[in-house]
Fold:
Amino acid sequence: YNLIRELKCNAVALDITLNSINKLFNDNIKINDESYSLEDTVAVIDLGHDFTNVNIISDGNVLFTRIINYGGSLIDIDIAKQLSISEEEAENQKIKICNLSREALSDIQSSMVNDIAKAQVKNWTHEIEKLLNYYKNKKEGNIIDKIYIYGGSSNLKGIEIFMKDIVNLPITRIHNLSNVNWSKIKRSEERRVGKE
Structure:
């Protein structure tokens, strides 16, 4: 809210992640053009820059939510330390080089960057796995059918397969939701920028 005020913008809506997720994951939506079923219990995970936000949804309701203090910035910090470069350059290296589905890369620096990313993502995934197991053990009959990931760190190449191999559940990166009109948001942003 303070950022919006500082930028002299008007907020269309402000909400907390838990409530936003609850509103988005309802009946008759499509995720990546595939129908979503309220009968499924899904983990919706925001792989962010500083935090990972885990929400478990069943029958259209968020039943469980936790925040993990792991995010993409930790990869940048580790790369910067190992290669003695700035965190900004480390982030560029991460975006350019990382491919978690590859075993070895051609040069030593690329291989090091990839290994650092893999180690961090493995840590996150183990923490996520602990939360999923906690939810499943909390009550008899609790299951998780599928995981959806989104957020900046979900753009790391090969992350879906890498995480799936650890948690042994289907993982899909969210590209689009049928109940979110991106073109309307884009037009609104273009109009706003045109006025400035």
Observations:
- The beta strands are 30-31, 34-35, 42-47, 52-58, 61-68, 146-150, 171-173.
- The longest helix spans residues 108-138.
